[in-house]
Write a structure and sequence with these properties.
This protein has 5 helices and no strands.
């Protein structure tokens, strides 16, 4: 009887960890999708000369950065990339830095700098995805 109870408890604990990992992956996927949509919003707003829309897109982007910066990327990164966790967090910090500069550029009315900041954010995203997803 003790063996059955122990086996059931072990199964329940193991299942709990699997569900927690799945929820964490779903949260990361949702954040990535929201960040992609924010980048699309920023781009559309730039094309239509809508500074408020650009700022709104940046706020949307930044709203999903906390999870990315605080997440332990080791859970979803390939094991052969020992520095990938640090790399992912660095990319997140750089995205945040360029996003802040993008808002300053919008406020200054410097369209060329706005485009440069947007491109730099996109480069950070692409750099991380290339490394992590082995594009």
């Amino acid at each position: 009887m003790k063996k059955i109870i122990t086996a059931v408890l072990a199964f329940m604990v193991g299942t709990t960890f699997l569900v927690a990992a799945e929820v964490k992956d779903e949260k990361m996927a949702a954040d990535m999708k929201a960040m992609m949509n924010a980048m699309i919003d920023i781009q559309k707003s730039w094309f239509y000369e809508n500074p408020r829309g650009i700022k709104k897109g940046v706020k949307k982007l930044e709203a999903h950065m906390d999870h990315l910066k605080s997440a332990d990327a080791k859970g979803y990164l390939p094991k052969n990339q020992e520095f990938a966790n640090k790399f992912a967090k660095k990319r997140a910090n750089m995205i945040e830095l360029y996003a802040e500069d993008l808002v300053e550029s919008v406020e200054a009315g410097d369209d060329e700098d706005v485009l440069d900041d947007y491109t730099q954010i996109m480069n950070q995203c692409t750099s991380c995805h290339m490394r992590i997803r082995n594009w």
